[in-house]
Each structure stands twice: as structure tokens, then as C-alpha cells.
């Protein structure tokens, strides 16, 4: 029984260390993702642009929003200076950034309350393999501990 207890204790310590590390990395990534999304938002719609364009004021807007704005006003919504009409350029850099964010499958709304719940299945599965490797002979015990912390779906 002493060996099993030591194995369980070792597995618990390893799992706890990995969980703490993953949560810290998760919080850092979520903060970065939120900052990127905030920087890419259209100042008119306050949403991520579907088709980002740059106006003559140097700011990035959703194409539909700035075109509608320009129908009623010839000034920049940001600087209030006169905008050159017909000079909207596609913002390919922002478009690519938004594609990467969307392809990641991670959703990060402003009202998200559970920052620790950001999906990190890849790192979790890697950590699980590491735990099971570091606890030889204790596969079922370590697997049970892991599943009790992360649930059955973290098994795949």
C-alpha cells in the first residue's frame, strides 16, 4: 500500500504542477487574444470587421460601416478631419490576423467570466501523457486522478 500511496502522491504533485502551469499560460494567452481582438475592432461598429479597410485617416474600419458613415459625413469618425472618399484600401494584415483568430476556434467575448475555461485540449493531452510517463506502473491510478480533475473528455 505504501508504494501505491507514494505513486498517488507523486502523480498528484505532478498533475497539480502541470495544472498551475497550464492555467497561467491559459490566462496569458487569453489576455493576448483579447488585446488583439480589441485592437482589430472597427471604431464605428465596435465589432471585429468582416472586411477590414484602411481609410485616409490611417484607421481600420469595417468596409460596410465606413461606407455607410461616408454617405452621411465626410469626416473621420476618429479624428473629425476630412476624409478622402473613394480611398479605402483593403487591410490585408488585419484580415489575416482575424482569419488566424477565427481558425483557432477559440472564442473570447468581452463578457467571458471563466478565463480558466479557455479550451486548451492540446496542452492538456500533452501534459496528461507526461504525467502518465512520469508515473510508471501507475497508469490506472494516474489516469483516474487525471479524469477526476479534467473529466473524461480530456482523455482523447
TrEMBL record:
A GO BP term, please?
A: protein ubiquitination
Against InterPro entries, the record matches this protein to: Ubox_domain, WD-SAM-U-box, Znf_RING/FYVE/PHD
Question: Do you know which SUPFAM superfamilies this protein is assigned to?
Answer: RING/U-box (SSF57850)
Instruction: Report the GO molecular function annotations.
Output: ubiquitin-protein transferase activity
U-box domain residues are 39-100
Q: Which Gene3D superfamilies match?
A: Zinc/RING finger domain, C3HC4 (zinc finger)
Superkingdom classification of source? Eukaryota
PANTHER family noted in UniProt: WD REPEAT, SAM AND U-BOX DOMAIN-CONTAINING PROTEIN 1
Q: What is this protein called?
A: U-box domain-containing protein
Organism, per UniProt? Polarella glacialis (Dinoflagellate)
Amino acid at each position: 500500500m505504501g508504494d501505491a500511496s507514494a505513486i498517488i502522491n507523486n502523480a498528484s504533485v505532478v498533475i497539480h504542477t502541470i495544472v498551475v502551469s497550464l492555467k497561467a499560460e491559459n490566462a496569458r494567452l487569453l489576455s493576448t487574444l483579447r488585446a488583439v481582438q480589441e485592437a482589430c475592432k472597427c471604431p464605428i461598429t465596435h465589432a471585429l470587421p468582416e472586411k477590414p479597410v484602411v481609410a485616409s485617416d490611417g484607421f481600420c474600419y469595417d468596409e460596410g460601416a465606413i461606407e455607410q458613415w461616408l454617405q452621411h459625413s465626410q469626416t473621420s469618425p476618429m479624428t473629425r478631419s476630412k476624409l478622402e472618399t473613394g480611398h479605402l484600401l483593403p487591410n490585408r494584415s488585419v484580415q489575416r490576423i482575424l482569419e488566424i483568430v477565427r481558425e483557432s476556434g477559440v472564442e473570447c467575448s468581452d463578457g467571458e467570466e471563466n478565463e480558466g475555461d479557455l479550451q486548451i485540449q492540446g496542452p492538456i493531452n500533452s501534459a496528461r501523457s507526461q504525467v502518465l510517463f512520469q508515473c510508471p506502473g501507475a497508469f490506472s491510478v494516474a489516469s483516474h486522478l487525471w479524469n477526476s480533475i479534467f473529466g473524461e473528455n480530456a482523455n482523447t
